[in-house]
Amino acid sequence: MMSIQIRLFSSSGCFFSPRHGKYNGPTLAHFMQASAARQLWRKTLRTINALDEPELKKDMRMWAREEFRRHKNERDLEQIKFCIAAGKKQLEMMTETLKRSRLS
Fold first, then answer.
1. Which of 40, 66, 86, 90 is most buried by its number of CB atoms within 10 A?
2. What's the predicted TM-score (pTM) here?
3. Rounded Cα–Cα distance for residues 93 and 81 (Å)
4. 3-state secondary structure of 72
5. What is the separation, in whole angstroms, between the first and last Cα of the chain?
6. Any idea of the CA torsion for 64, 8, 36, 62, to the nearest 10 degrees?
């Protein structure tokens, strides 16, 4: 007998098998962390867009894009939380550095 599998989230590759009743897809906590990651992404872009130098802007955008792309497929909640916290810390440090560089 064949087991039926339905792909619920194409990007995450999670399956639900009606025969076995197992579901290993994203939970509410995953969606909440995804929202936090999007918020961090927007805040990062706003900070980068405030830069005056076009070349620095381009480099910083590439750096931010690569950092987010590198962790795009992470599914472990603890690791996701860690990445978001680390990203917030990096953004905070970058903002402070930019403020100091404008003052001098």
1. 40
2. 0.73
3. 18
4. coil
5. 73
6. 10
